[in-house]
Write a structure and sequence with these properties.
single chain, alpha+beta, six-stranded antiparallel β-sheet, 1199 residues, ATPase-coupled intramembrane lipid transporter activity, 40 helices, nine-stranded mixed β-sheet, elongated
Length: 1199
Amino acid sequence: MPDQTIELGQLTPTSPTNGSARLSDHHAPDEEDGTASSAIDRETEESGCTQANVEQRVIFINRAQPPVPKFVHNRVSTAKYRYVDYIKIYTVISLEQFRRWANVFFLMIALLQQIPDVSPTGRYTTLVPLIFILSVSAIKEIIEDVKRHRADDETNHRRVEVLRGDNWISVRWKDVIVGDFVKVLNNTFFPADLVLISSSEPQGMSFIETANLDGETNLKIRQALQTTAKVTTTHELTQLSGTIECEPPNKHLYEFNGVLREAHKTAEHLGPDQLLLRGAILRNTSWIFGIVIYTGHETKLMRNSTKAPLKRSTVDKLTNVQILLLFGLLFVMCLLCSIFNVLWNNARAKSDWYIGLEDSSQNFLYNLLTFLILFNNLIPISLQVTLEVVRFIQAIFINMDIEMYHAETDTPAMARTSNLNEELGQVKYVFSDKTGTLTRNVMEFKRCAIGHDIYSISENIDESLLVQHLRQGHKNAELIRDLLVLLSVCHTVIPERMPDGTVVYHAASPDERALVYGAAKFGYVFVSRTPDTVEINALGVKEQYEILTVLEFTSARKRMGADNVIYERLDNSSGREHGEVLLQHLEHFASEGLRTLCCAVADLKKSDYEDWKQMYNKASISLQHREEKIEEAANLIERKLKLIGATAIEDKLQEGVPETIASLLQADINVWVLTGDKQETAINIGYSCRLLSHGMQIIILNEDRLDKVRESILRHCDDLGDNLEKQNEIALIIDGKTLKYALTFELRTDFLRLCISCKVVICCRVSPMQKAEVVEYVTKYTKAVTLAIGDGANDVAMIQKAHVGVGISGAEGLQAACASDYSIAQFRFLLRLLLVHGAWNYSRMCKLILYSFYKNICLYVIELWFAIYSGWSGQILFERWSIGFYNVLFTALPPLAMGLFDKPCGADKMMMYPKLYKPSQSGELFNIKVFWYWVINGLVHSRVAVLAAAAGLPARHPVGLGRRGRLSGARKLRLYDVSGRESVCENIGENCQSLGHRERRSGSPAMLTAIYIIGISHVMTVCVVVTVCLKAGLVTNSWTWLTHCAIWGSIALWFLFIIIYSLFWPTIPFGSVMTGMYVMLFSTAVFWLGLIVVPIITSLPDFSVKVIHSTIFKSLTDVVRESEIRKSEPEVYRAEPKNSLSETARLLKNVFTRRTAPRIEVEVELSHGFAFSQEEGGAVSQTDVIRAYDTNIPKPPGM
């Protein structure tokens, strides 16, 4: 609603006259609107200008475009890969998997295994699993990318009317090409970047909503050139001919230069006022005609988007580093074994001549490679497959969570990538858009205050207390009438009567629209507008008012109801009696998060108005300092006001936003708001959604020069003193023009130090690239996990810059959702996504990774201990298939169960106690200390298993293990009986086929020794299997029937395997060395004793540590989990969120405070909930909008 001081005189009905409107010149927003190009933009400005001179674009009107310039198609994609070449996609994704050092390590091992006579484990034991891992990863990435393509198709397959010949046909967006004439209808998106030709509105005006681009809630006005504005029929459109010359595609949303050259007419300049951007929505306009100039990825919207990044979780990166360290440990082990092998051979070459050491010709490097292959399983190759499977299923759990399903829009949560599931549990900073994310962008008139009374809306007008007071001649009756007339007359709203007789209001300002609807609900209905008059229906009586003068709205003057501005201009003899009461009403409204406006009128004499009008006209035509003179003239008439009352409008929040933010803050998650909207609106929303709290100090940075910004930032940093970079109860509010200087290299560090010292940061009037810069710099400076959430195309850049991007599938389109990692329907679902799924997945993935390393170390390090007994020969101990099934069968289920079903506490408790998020957020469950604790734990358990098995080995067996020659690249075990007769067995892990069936039946000492060692290896294996399964049970917090099946079933699978494998021979000519093995094991007391003793010995220390930790050093998680098991309330203090309904009640205007702890100056100029949205300095002035419309004349149909 523009600022207006109007002489309201009732008129007799007159014939409407068409007014003319002065067309504004090309408007280029200056830095004051906060949309100046960011640092990233500035990097390309110079090159962009040069390119414009070289690659000027020429578009022919109503002619086919020449084949020389190559215009891109209108299909857009937010996916990482294209459909075109599946083999290429597979190759690229597979190569990307080598960012993980584990895959590089396994590739190296697979290559080493191809060298003849080096590998003791075969040539393909690593290569085949590696190919499988890469395939699983690639397939998963392809599946997730296909989902992105499908989401893109929802946009690409939208339809729009395109002129083909003389007819309008409906085509898909992706089929729109440069040079097409398109017809866009009301409340629909623009399919590409268009030049406005004409519209259904007077003088070619159109209203567009750019919240999807810049986050602003008010509508913008665009206006066609006067030469084309009259083209309102299809026939006239087909008669146009000529060319449009314009700059090449670029990313500058608010800049455009072009020339329209119609045949036989003077060329005319095209600017941003004629540009309709893809991503914007047509509002309050029946239709527009436009010509396509930029399509697809050449549109300004897509030019501001970046390529979808390949993100990796913090846990994944830390695991990558630990694998490098573990590889270093492995290399040291191999080096030591190779050295000891040389020493052992040199020491025993003569004394142990029967082993054949004198024939050994292997060199040191050869031995080193052998041990590298032998010990490579210390790094679990199965981990990658398990991680991919678990992450994929975790993503399905997110998609199927009924608690995050929005029934109203039939929208479930969607995990668009599964690589970041655990990252959701470590978020420290949340960067949120405002419009459409926190708010619904819907304004609703709630109540008004007049005199000592507050009036609310009633369903029935006659039942309204306000209407009753008006009709009954209450003491407030005169003020009530003044207020209702003011609301229904003084605005720029355009009424439209629908076929059913109802009146629909169109307005650039959502606040104005809400106020007019509010007046209508009290019986004062705005009916029609002409260039000079407005007509209302006042409780059944038609009244007409003449519009004398319109004073343009500016946010600097704040004449649209800021109480501190209005109160300064009140007449001392009028309205003061209600002033103090009204302030209390304003505080009450503000405490509820409502947007307030003060209303006042002035009585003027006709002679005074005429004198003032001459002065105002003189100021408006002044050649120097015109704006200052107009403001001075306006101030002369905006005085001696009579206070009427105040209005309260609700900027509706998304459901559950205040509770969600309060819980996020309790979870020690910092919430920043990055919005393109105005400062007053952002602050008002900050209070209503509990982001700003009662008693919180506020720092406002509004500077327009670099030196002032520097001085202000450094001053505030000095005032904080020792509390700098420690979180304080302070909120920082900064606008776009100040942020531009604050993010320069010179001030960036100091600015970020100030920001992280504040509990809340709100950035207003910021561009999409500034949002991305803030997220990027905070991410780099703090090294913390960041999350960005938004619903519009202007949020895509910051969504892609953050560690985790969350898109809202909202009313502003699907572009943010398509570019995100996770999409949800409402902001409130973010709480469950983080506190439940995030914390659960982090805990699960940490345990899975740690347990996978532990179980492999626990078994495969036994090869190191066995090397002590085998002369450091590199001989493998375990039977090949037994060891092969260890990761595939015997220990595959426990990590899957932990990764899918384990949870520290139930979902309800996680939501009820946000502090439970702290362990995952701070990385307590997975760090260097924890990782190496598990490694050492595995080393100790493996050593215990070897010592226990060695204790059961009879000392009388004459066993000599040596290395003489090689056979098919495999180690030979040479066994000698007491007579010196030699027998050869290839790798104990193989079938010992060379011994022959006769020797097996004869029970030769060589065969008995081989079988006995294999038996001992199985004893060790089952002891390790039971130990690691018990370890899985010990670290499991939540037992389900699937967990029981996974742990106890894994042990049972080993027994089932050993029985079946022992029965293969001779029915199946395979595994002859295992014949009768289960009988030998099950009939041996040592086996059963070891099966019981070894797991108990190894698990007892871990069990003791857990008992002590859960009793003496009990954490909040332990307390809540115990209460959940007992089904009782935990004996812990849970801080309840403060009631936001009183957070702004004590805000005072013109506040200046100085604190001592910390010592900081807080400069605030806030009024009681004042906020108002209106476009300033647009393509068409508010005066021209009012003077252009005559709603009594029907609009052209555009056919």
